[in-house]
Amino acid sequence: MDPLITHVESFLQHIRIERNYSPATEDSYRSALALFVQFLSDTGASVTDKHSVNAFIRFLQGRGSSDVTIAHRLAVLKS
């Protein structure tokens, strides 16, 4: 299994068990993280490259995502 996906799954388990986030919040985080992982895979970008987040923002803008949606996705990545 991809190490990044392993980290994502561990993080989701952490917010579910340790942080007691709701299932809806977990689903929202899962969706945002899956989109970012797919973006990295499709573009060949690295999670450790600081330019990847800026490219992800441009990708979301290109898809027509609202500022609120983009802010939410960034908040998920920060957490």
Secondary-structure map:
Blueprint: H1 3-17, H2 23-43, H3 50-62, H4 67-78
Helix pairs in contact: 1-2, 2-4
Structure report:
77% of the residues lie in helices and 0% in strands. The protein is mainly alpha-helical and 79 residues long. α1 packs antiparallel against α2 and α2 (23-43) packs across α4. It starts with a helix and ends with a helix. 6% of the residues are buried.
In short:
With 79 residues, the protein is mainly alpha-helical. It contains four helices and no strands. Helices cover 77% and strands 0% of the residues.
Backbone structural class: mainly alpha
Globally, the shape reads globular
Quick check: average pLDDT?
Answer: 95
End-to-end C-alpha gap: 22 Å
Beta strand %: under 5%
Succession of helices and strands: HHHH
Which stretches are low in confidence, meaning pLDDT under 50 for 5 or more residues running? Answer: none
- Relative helix content: over 70%
Rg to the nearest angstrom?
13 Å
Major sheet description: none
Number of helices: 4
Question: Notable features of this structure?
Answer:
79 residues, 77% helix, mainly alpha, globular
